[in-house]
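Journal club prep, notes for RB
We'll compare a predicted complex against what the paper describes. Inputs for the pantoate case:
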Amino acid sequence: MIIGNDVKQWQSIRRQDSVDTMLGFVPTMGALHQGHLSLVNRSLQENDKTVVSIFLNPTQFNDPKDLSGYPQTLEQDIAALETAGVDVLLLPDFEQVYPDNYRYKLIESEFSQQLCGASRPGHFDGVLTVVMKLLNIVQAHNAYFGEKDYQQYVLIKEMAEAFFLRTKIIACPTVREADGLAFSSRNARLATGERILAPFFHKTLTQDMSVDSLKAQLESYGFKVDYLEELSGRRYGAVYLGKVRLIDNVAI
Ligand code: PAF
């Protein structure tokens, strides 16, 4: 696996690639888990080469404590990507990705203001801006995103269409632990009691009940509900267990 942190060097390597080489891309913020590895494996199956990026993007964190508490496991991440058979790992730093110091932003004005966007002001500006930058750097044919972050996936897919990007945006199913909890880098921060309670979030979301009854049920278990809403055939939720914020969604 080639590991590179120089964006300009990557761009020149990319220009030398044959036009027939199918390239898949999986952008991540590290702390890799089985959800990420399912995206990587899908990319490895569908492309000649797979590029993964690890970049803990500060502009998508509205809460500095959330950023400083984000798990960082670079050595294990590199080992997992090597074992999976990834071709290139990009590890850019802030200056490489933001030579403009975030003076330029990509802002969506409707869906990004709802659900997670309503609770985390500016979050999707940071996500869309960094994903646009990474897609432009990597110039892949296909890029893979997990359905756990369904709102993020929809916004990125629609951004790619709106800006006529050549990269195809592909959604991959949420990967869950045996008890139904969606894999997330944040799960590592759950205390033992919180981890036991956490699967009841997904179990509750799948029940045939009104949104108000679902909220009441989650609160009776001990979750603090950030939001629970049904939109366009999907039920979306975000809850807190202690300081840890979990999100999930199911088709309805
Ligand atoms: O889903 C994530 O890990 C991040 O939001 C992404 C897409 C890598 C952008 O930083």
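Talking point for the session: The beta strands are 2-4, 23-28, 49-54, 88-90, 142-146, 168-172, 224-231, 234-241, 244-251.
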